[in-house]
Amino acid sequence: MLLTPNAMGRPLRFGLYATTGVIAAFLLLPILFIVLLSFGSSQWLVFPPPGWTLKWYGQFFSNPEWMDAALASLKVAVLTTVCAVALGLPTAFALVRGRFPGREMLYGLFTLPMIVPLVIIAVAVYALFLKLGYTGTLFAFVVSHVIVALPFTIISIINSLKLFDQSIEDAAVICGASRLQAIFKVTFPAIRPGMIAGGLFAFLVSWDEVVLSVMMASPNLQTLPVKMWTTLRQDLTPVIAVASTLLIGLSLLVMLIAAALRRRNPVSA
């Protein structure tokens, strides 16, 4: 009995779906457990929870230390996003449209933080800021986060620039606009989805960063991941699960925004 291609493909598709489901469950179930633990009534991280309560959320939002850490994370992430886009935009233009020796090497240099182990970057940045006396400052946090977030922003903007037809910008110049006016009124709106996506990636990198943040932290300034790290060394309170849930929730929200932008602008994004 001969099997048709469709009949032969069904077991393969089933195996693919089953494998994908197992991998997805392996990756997502721990996250789901953390979210459930944040609503558990036990004072320890016990699964399954013996009951359900919202008191740990009340403790989180009423604790000034946790709130200060969350606000510090948000402030650092926003400043990192702004700086990454402001630096990544001209860098992407130079790498795409520039014609100078060493351009490919420069591109590799800017993407190096994606390859080098993060702990190496953290030690190097910490040594630099320790010598300059900037450890434990907002400036040190933002600069260190921009170092690791900038490659994602540059790559995103570069992809949008490569897909953009520069002849449209040239046509605006022929019609009487200056090159700068054409860039601001024609090119920037066309590559805006790439700029926004790069900014969202930078925000996510900064929002979840813990290795660099541990190096830059001080008793007066620490981000939410650092606060979670220091608390874990002392106690396994479910408030940590609450903080983790908030980190996951905001990260998921940013990813949904990026997906919506990509769906609206499938070519540019």
UniProtKB/TrEMBL annotation:
| Topology of this chain in the membrane | Multi-pass membrane protein
Q: Where is the protein localized? A: Cell inner membrane; Cell membrane
What Pfam families is this protein classified in?
BPD_transp_1
Matching InterPro entries, A to Z? MetI-like, MetI-like_sf
GO terms under biological process: transmembrane transport
Q: Does the keyword Transmembrane apply?
A: yes
UniProt keyword terms in alphabetical order: Cell inner membrane, Cell membrane, Membrane, Transmembrane, Transmembrane helix, Transport
Which residue windows are transmembrane per the record? 12-39, 76-96, 108-130, 136-158, 195-216, 236-261
Mind telling me which GO cellular component terms the entry cites? plasma membrane
Chain ranges of the ABC transmembrane type-1 domain:
70-258
Q: What PANTHER family does the database record attribute to this sequence?
A: INNER MEMBRANE ABC TRANSPORTER PERMEASE PROTEIN YDCV
- Similarity comment: family membership: Belongs to the binding-protein-dependent transport system permease family.
Q: What is this protein called?
A: Polyamine ABC transporter permease
